[in-house]
Fold these 2 entries.
Entry 1:
Amino acid sequence: MANDFFTGNKEFFPGIGKIKYEGPQSDNPLAFKFYDSNKMIGGKSMRDHLRFAIAYWHSFCGDGADPFGGTTHFYPWNKAADPMEAAKDKLDAAFEFFTKIDASYWCFHDKDIAPEGGSLADFEKNVQTITALAKERQNATGMKLLWGTANLFSHERYMNGAFTNPNFEVVTYAAAQVKAAIDATVELGGDGYVFWGGREGYMSLLNTNMKREKDHLARALEMARDYGRKAGFKGQYMIEPKPMEPTKHQYDFDTETVVSFIKNNGFEDDFRVNIENNHATLAGHTFWHDLQVAVDAGLLGSIDANQGDYQNGWDTDQFPTNVFEATRAMMVVLDNGGLGKGGLNFDAKRRRNSTDAEDLFIAHIGGMDTFALGLEAAYKVKNESSIPTMLRDRYSSFDTGAGADFEAGKFSLEDLQKAAFNTAEPETLSGKQELYENIVNSMIYGK
Ligand code: XLS
Ligand code: NI
Ligand code: NI
């Protein structure tokens, strides 16, 4: 349990203690109102249901810059002149935050934790050094790694793609980074390893051989899988879909696309999907649509918990505040029997103008409270509402008799035609969508 406050050499969030549950009546902005980690829901604690993880990149690296202006988040852990000293300070700040916010998991890219130095070899060495320190911090605090990954999109060498780059030399660099990031993930006992296809896609088909690029991606992931298993990685590999940004057309467009890619390549024993709300909505789906696609395929890996902006058409990566969305997501998660080795990773950033140190806490508290409410409501929908029965009944004509025979593949099209001629015009049956929606709301707001 990540319950013991870790004291590094310096305190980076002075004046903020461990965040506690104070209940819905509290007006303390630095307290949980709904996330009560030990509260049991259906025989499992909220902590174990939700498996919250903190994203290193947004929370300790993101500087608030946007295309119109530079840094607005100035971090005390970025002050040291020596990049390795700064990386160590950042690690201490991160573990201080993890324990104060009372999360159990964290996630990182290689480049988030260690400076690139002057060469690929330097970078690998730096990643190893910080990984060893992170392991000490994990042992001291009980924090665990949800997943690790390699950043194959920021460096200019990847501007035309990483594993899908038309230049083979770039592919070798991507592979070297992935090997080192898998090593770090194994060393830290990670439950997962993520491939988000950063720049794996294209800007123009005129200069792109899509078939070759996608084949290259499959070959590289196969090699990564085999290497990781050889190196002792027991967790789940995951692919994170996103339809666009940074490329115009990303190869891992949405969950359906990734499920097909996994199955077409025979990757289903090792690979699953890491689903991010804002990526699902960019693909024109709801969050829960993409989750359901993964669950139906038996391939739900983990969740990047954030939310988009309802008007903007890009990835705004905001902290989740929408309880209806969280409820719908948790309904699908409960259908799946839980998150397994996955978790709810806050791949979310404070707004550029949220510049107080406490804003990082407030943002996470909001996200954690939102999913706690979503979990409780989803549990009620599943166990106390009429929705499961209504949904089952809606398909009951396939449960017995001819309907069941049809499902079992016992009929030909001619048999169905004959059956139609023996049946009076079917009744029009209401879909009752508004009733379902009202029931979900009544479970959220209490009956
Ligand atoms: C970016 C992605 C990224 C992945 C990890 O849009 O969400 O943060 O989660 O590389
Ligand atoms: Ni993500
Ligand atoms: Ni995103």
Entry 2:
Amino acid sequence: MFYSELPVGIFDSGLGGLSVWQQFTRLLPAEHTVYLADQAFCPYGPRAAAEIASRAEAITRFLLQKKCKLIVVACNTATAAAIAHLRERFTETAFVGMEPAVKPAAKLTRTGHIGLLATAGTLKGDLLEKTSRMHASHVQVHRQEGTGLVELVERGLQDSPRAVALLASYLRPMLQAGADQLVLGCTHYSFLINSIIKVAGTQLNIIDPAPAVAQRAKDLLQQQNLLHSNTGGPGRHQLFSTLGADALQRFVESLSQLPAGSSCSFARQAI
Ligand code: DGL
């Protein structure tokens, strides 16, 4: 087997990273993937950075046992808490991380007000501080913690009246301040876009980082000459949850946007 035929590892605290996984499998249908949802420890948002870093390290070891050629940290909270640690610890491994897209939002805004919805862990991370200072010092960033939203997505309630009500309470202040951009600073929130539109209509341009992260992973594979050739047929996807595979399987099957012919297997994996 060639190194390029090995899978790409993707992980998150739960189902949110599937927004990145979905974009990635669409962009590169021949790639094999291993997805790990750390649902036994979800949500990461309120946890201490050291605990998240230790989860990220253990998950990375598991993905490396599965021979992953690249690891995508499909979680803003884990990136903020752990990406520097992972890069130091696993010097041979390439990682793609994610941070809130305040840079494009600051470029696009016409009102000078942008909204950022993220977890507590992401909002207090140094990464966000640094990016905001570098790219968004000329605009006002309305930061809002999305308490409870991750749990709703995990329970498949992303389109529920409860999700719309919670989002309305979080978005109203930034809408009143004139925000015209909304940065989704947590991968779970990509699944809330329909509910966000119900609240904000067309006032907010929603910036979902998932396509850009998938593209970054593709660019990195390309640069390292590690893209899977298209000749082997559609990719195989192994999806694991540290809690139990049922909810993960139901959620993936509801996405129904997998490239034709690709196959998925689901299992529980204690880590
Ligand atoms: N989906 C994750 C993120 O992007 C984690 C959210 C959580 O577990 O609190 O931040």
